[in-house]
Design goal:
single chain; mainly alpha; Glycosyltransferase; two-stranded antiparallel sheet; 2 strands; 1% strand; binds 2-acetamido-2-deoxy-beta-D-glucopyranose; glycoprotein; signal
């Protein structure tokens, strides 16, 4: 099914007729890819005002939450890695250091009352990427990228919960947040992904032992099927016996890169099979023309703010996986190529004429992809990752401590009991009410999208 060769890649790109394309993109030309990525990034950064007077460094304005900013800065690390353009490096470093918070583990006081494990993981994974690509190190006296990733990992490993479902991380960190009773794939995927990558970077098997533990749990809990489809999550009140079977692009991606990394470290056939199985299972997120879509919400046009970000991560991690598991390269390339062309074609809206839309497909009879009248940071981010991922063969793979990685680590970072809310800033009733309302809004959005179940 996934044996499309590079020859048919040429054909499929040629057959994507895109006359109204506003962002020029020629995938055979490195400069063209970089230029398209630059245009999309510029559009994305128009939303960022955190570095202006009176604003908070590292935050995006409403309706974006803290994790969206972590997602965005992670992609800006990638942007520099792929293009060499340093324009946003300073803003990125400032944000990633400031939002690490006083405990340097992505548990900043302003966020903790509503922070989930997945939110923290997105910032931690941005730091991990920075270490792997030798993103310019923070100033002396500031925590290193590696230490920030380790801090995130360490604080999450402490939250492993064996009281229900035989293990797993809960979605929410604090009992008073709705979603505390939910063990979901993205939170556990974050720990898995970080564990595998920290093991590769540091050579310390403590991290890969954890990755194995998370994998075994996610498989045993039924959140990943025998065919490697990754479901959304399960409720602890039913001991995780009745998973929500909705599938999201980023859940597939987060496990794909972790498994590919585990294969790289171990060389085991078992991890190769798992990597291939996860790749196979991504077919639910691609149309026949190999263009990526968020199958659970795009066709119905009801993706919420979060869901508009997810495709960025599948694209990012598909590309990254090919660097650690080269057997994926020829399989993945046609899908990244077709998605990039279609994404660029969607970037033809707004007052600047290059605003990107949500859908990278057309429902008209001539199949011409045009802007679908939607816009936002998520739309820009997804297009950016889809486009710049096509430079993956031009860049080096992730560095490690032994191959030139220069990031400063700290084994014991972040394990100082931040999982205990009593040690944190006093949480008021108003905080609780705010957190509950937030969580209800988020859950309502998810439930709204749940009409779609796989199989
Ligand atoms: C904020 O960052 C953006 C993007 O890097 C940059 O264009 C802008 O000049 C910065 N503004 C300030 C006040 O530093
Ligand atoms: C927390 O919020 C306060 C008040 O808005 C702000 O001054 C501070 O910079 C914020 N800190 C972080 C890490 O976001
Ligand atoms: C909950 O699930 C775990 C893992 O499947 C199992 O070991 C445990 O016995 C279950 N607990 C209850 C109360 O059924
Ligand atoms: C992936 O799909 C290919 C082609 O359909 C199949 O041969 C292979 O067995 C699958 N691999 C796994 C691990 O499911
Ligand atoms: C295409 O999608 C738009 C918006 O989702 C909808 O209004 C329109 O009716 C659709 N057209 C066709 C031919 O399905
Ligand atoms: C593991 O990943 C590194 C970094 O990209 C790469 O250089 C190496 O070739 C990979 N190992 C294998 C066996 O593919
Ligand atoms: C690599 O890791 C070792 C052990 O943690 C450390 O002593 C050394 O400084 C690291 N090397 C670099 C380049 O960071
Ligand atoms: C490996 O990492 C663990 C967890 O951070 C740490 O406790 C241990 O000291 C490390 N081992 C080595 C050999 O660096």
């Amino acid at each position: 099914m996934r044996t499309t060769s590079l020859i048919s890649l040429g054909l499929s790109i040629a057959s994507l007729a895109l006359p109204s394309q506003a962002i020029e993109l020629d995938l055979s030309n490195e400069a063209s890819i970089k230029s398209a990525a630059s245009t999309v990034t510029y559009g994305m950064m128009k939303y960022y005002h955190g570095n202006e007077t009176g604003q908070t460094i590292g935050l995006l304005p409403w309706p974006y939450y803290w994790w969206h900013a972590g997602a965005m800065f992670g992609s800006l690390v990638d942007y520099w890695y792929y293009t060499g353009d340093t324009s946003y490096n300073e803003a990125t470093t400032n944000a990633m250091i400031f939002q690490a918070g006083p405990t340097a583990d992505y548990m900043p006081e302003n966020q903790t009352k509503s922070e989930g494990n997945d939110d923290q993981a997105f910032w931690g994974m941005a730091a991990m990427s920075a270490a792997e690509v030798n993103f310019p190190n923070p100033a002396k006296g500031k925590p290193g990228w590696l230490a920030l990733a380790q801090a995130t990992f360490n604080s999450q490993a402490l939250r492993w919960d064996t009281k229900t479902c035989g293990g797993g991380l809960r979605w929410q960190i604090f009992t008073f947040n709705n979603g505390y009773n939910y063990k979901n794939s993205i939170s556990n995927g974050g720990l898995f992904n970080l564990g595998a990558r920290l093991a590769m970077y540091t050579g310390n098997t403590t991290y890969s032992d954890w990755a194995v533990k998370v994998w075994d749990w996610i498989e045993g809990s039924g959140l990943m099927t025998d065919d490697y489809y990754v479901y959304d999550g399960s409720d602890t009140t039913t001991n995780c016996t009745d998973p929500s079977k909705i599938q999201w692009t980023y859940n597939a991606g987060i496990f794909l890169l972790g498994a590919a990394t585990m294969w790289n470290i171990t060389g085991e056939q078992l991890w190769r099979d798992r990597t291939m199985g996860l790749w196979n299972a991504t077919h639910v997120f691609f149309r026949d023309d190999k263009v990526m879509y968020e199958v659970a919400c795009e066709p119905g046009g009801n993706c919420n703010v979060d869901q508009h970000f997810f495709k960025a991560y599948l694209a990012r991690w598909m590309a990254a996986s090919t660097k650690v598991a080269p057997f994926l390269s020829d399989l993945v390339a046609p899908y990244l190529a077709a998605s990039a062309m279609a994404a660029a074609a969607s970037c033809s809206g707004g007052t600047d004429g290059v605003t990107c839309g949500t859908k990278w497909f057309s429902n008209t009879s001539d199949l011409t992809v045009t802007w679908d009248n939607t816009w936002g940071v998520g739309q820009q981010l997804c297009a950016l990752e889809a486009i710049q991922s096509n430079l993956i063969t031009k860049v080096q793979g992730p560095l490690t401590n032994k191959t030139g990685g220069t990031s400063q680590g700290d084994d014991s970072a972040g394990s100082g009991g931040d999982s205990d809310p009593t040690k944190m800033k006093k949480i008021t009733d108003a905080d609780k009410a705010g957190a509950v309302i937030l969580t209800i809004l988020v859950l309502a959005g998810w439930v709204g999208a749940m009409f779609w179940l796989i199989i």
